[in-house]
């Protein structure tokens, strides 16, 4: 199955494609250039695989949480790509993507992900490695760092990843045995592919009209492209 994955929800911008069981990827740390960088990245991974957008059978998009502007860019570009070819889409959590990266990189079994949400808050969630797939424990949250409450089993060896720990290092003291990943700070679209495959098998994909960004904060609403109800 040809799956295209896109993410611009944080400072990092990335695109990845799986085709014929091979993954092609592009990534750049360019927080103010997402709208200029993403489509060329898409073109490059398609060229690497020697296919076109018409051959893509599913688009996975970073649905948030993260930068409001970044989420809008990712969802709008996904909408534009999917509409022309009537490609189904699947939203992938930014936090889940980082948790999957921790599994891929560190063989992590328990993962605590946190992104600096500004305004003295963090986005955060807990994940468990279930058969190699990052699986959410409870819900995703946005809260003050002081209100973060974890539910890991006693004795768990926890991998922490994301920018929340740079901004609020006290999060690393909430439970014992937390190790901060030095390699997983931002999501990478290549890690979205396994989550997209698992979600597709569970019928979590939708048509593009049901594309659904997740801000966690209630101060932002999604507007579709003009002419779409």
How would you briefly describe this protein structure?
This protein is of the alpha/beta class. 28% of the residues lie in helices and 29% in strands.
- The residue ranges in which pLDDT falls below 50 over 5 or more consecutive positions are 219-223, 225-229
Mean pLDDT figure: 93
Number of strands: 10
Give the N-terminus to C-terminus distance in angstroms: 30 Å
Description:
By secondary structure, the protein is α/β, with parallel strands linked by helices. It has 5 helices and 10 strands. It has helices at residues 34-49, 68-85, 94-106, 164-167, 189-201; strands spanning 3-7, 12-19, 22-29, 58-64, 89-93, 110-116, 122-130, 133-143, 158-161, 178-180. The chain has a 5-stranded mixed β-sheet, sandwiched between helices. Strands 8-7-6-9-10 form a 5-stranded mixed β-sheet. Strand 9 (158-161), helix 4 (164-167) and strand 10 (178-180) form a beta-alpha-beta unit. Helix 3 packs across helix 5. The longest helix has 18 residues, at 68-85. The model is unreliable at 219-223 and 225-229 (pLDDT under 50).
What is the strand and helix layout of this fold?
Blueprint: E1 3-7, E2 12-19, E3 22-29, H1 34-49, E4 58-64, H2 68-85, E5 89-93, H3 94-106, E6 110-116, E7 122-130, E8 133-143, E9 158-161, H4 164-167, E10 178-180, H5 189-201
Parallel strand pairs: 1-4, 4-5, 6-9, 9-10
Antiparallel strand pairs: 1-2, 2-3, 6-7, 7-8
Helix pairs in contact: 3-5
Give short descriptive properties of this protein:
disordered C terminus, 229 residues, 28% helix, 5 helices, five-stranded mixed sheet, globular, alpha/beta
């Amino acid at each position: 199955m040809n799956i295209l994955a896109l993410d611009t929800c944080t400072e990092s911008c990335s695109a990845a494609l799986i085709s014929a069981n091979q993954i092609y990827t592009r990534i750049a740390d360019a927080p103010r250039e997402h709208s200029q960088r993403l489509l060329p990245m898409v073109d490059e991974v398609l060229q690497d695989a020697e296919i076109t957008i018409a051959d893509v059978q599913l688009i996975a998009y970073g649905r948030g949480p993260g930068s409001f502007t970044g989420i809008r860019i990712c969802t709008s570009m996904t909408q534009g790509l999917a509409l022309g070819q009537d490609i189904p889409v699947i939203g992938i959590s930014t936090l889940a993507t980082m948790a999957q990266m921790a599994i891929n990189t560190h063989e992590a079994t328990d993962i605590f992900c946190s992104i600096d949400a500004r305004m003295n808050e963090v986005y955060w969630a807990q994940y468990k490695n279930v058969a190699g797939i990052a699986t959410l424990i409870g819900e995703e949250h946005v809260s003050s760092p002081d209100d973060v409450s974890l539910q890991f089993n006693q004795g768990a060896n926890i991998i922490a990843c994301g920018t929340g720990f740079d901004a609020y290092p006290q999060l690393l003291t909430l439970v014992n045995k937390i190790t901060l990943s030095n390699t997983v700070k931002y999501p990478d679209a290549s890690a979205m592919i396994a989550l997209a495959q698992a979600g597709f098998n569970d019928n979590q994909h939708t048509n593009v009209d049901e594309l659904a960004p997740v801000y966690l904060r209630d101060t932002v609403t999604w507007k579709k492209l003009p002419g779409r109800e």
